[in-house]
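--- STAGE predict ---
source: upstream dedup step, 1 unique chain passed
mode: sequence only
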Amino acid sequence: MLSSLKSSASSSSHEEQDHHQRHHPAARQLLISCADLVGRGDLPAAQRAVGLLLGTASPFGDAADRLAHQFALALSIRADGRLRRSSAPEAVQSAYLAFNQITPFLRFAHLTANQAILEAVEGSPCVHILDFDTSHGLQWPPLLQAIAERADHENPPPAIRITGTGTCLDVLRLTGRRLQTFADSLNLRFEFHPLLLPPDSAVPADLNLNSHLRPGETLAVNCVLFLHKLLKDEDDDRGELRAFMAAVRGANPAVVAVAEREASHGSPVFLQRFAEAMDYYAAVFEALEATLPPTSRERVAVEQVWLGQEINGVVVGTVRHEAFARWEAAMRAAGFRNRPLSPFALSQARLLLRLHYPSEGYQLQAARDAAFLGWQNKALFSVSSWH
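--- STAGE serialize ---
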């Protein structure tokens, strides 16, 4: 896999990038026109226009075509409230794992958040990680490995407990068993506890984190691609986010790791939200095109299932992403202060990019005590640490 990333990256050319840039404005303008019809409530006209787009934008063409196809599908669902877009859980899981493997975004978020956690809990005999939206637990094997490798006779590894949250108890239990097996292979003292969250809400209204803590534990709270789920709709007053932040602050964690998409998809004006989402995902699709060969089945799965699901959520209005400035303000309002990312954390992220991904495309920047990973000149993900 990694060797194919390197070979395909070296084959991408500036001529190809120029080609995508020349064709992107036309596709974008057609989509913006359709989105304008949707925003003005002219749904019959929007449906006709979307039908034309779906007939011309190929899901297997260049990056601009593939992007246009995914946004046209999302617009068709927005214009016809009876339509639904869903994939089998197995397909979603496969696309998620492929996205983690073929792009640096999730690995960057996990690696950088893990390093912040490691540094904050160093020297603690008992560490409790409260992980929101655990999913398949991809973040934690590297952290367990790092803990085992730094231990010696004079500095034994701490006891580690992870409380993993999610909406599917079966998935959480399977994740816990996998992590337990891995921790056992490293001779680590390890526990995993599932915490089921209601499917219609990111967190319970009466969340009490202190009830999940034990005396003597050093608490780390992990919020990787989670906080945006607390913003429900265009009229949300951020009450759920404030309540969650207050609950986390009340648990007195040693560190809160935050990672989010560096995007602004929360505007109450549909056309503005749509245009911003187009710009954001255009960069993601271009990165995938430069990273993988045109025949890659993995890329097709990532774009059509995983990213298609995200795009649909943004266009339909069930998903709201916010840029770092909003999370920075929310953390400070809740009484948290920046815990600057260490030079080692940043050097690890740069090494990840240098070893496995197109060095001329993915860009890592440090600013405002946070790290930003993007494609070309557009930041796409941010990671920050708080206490």
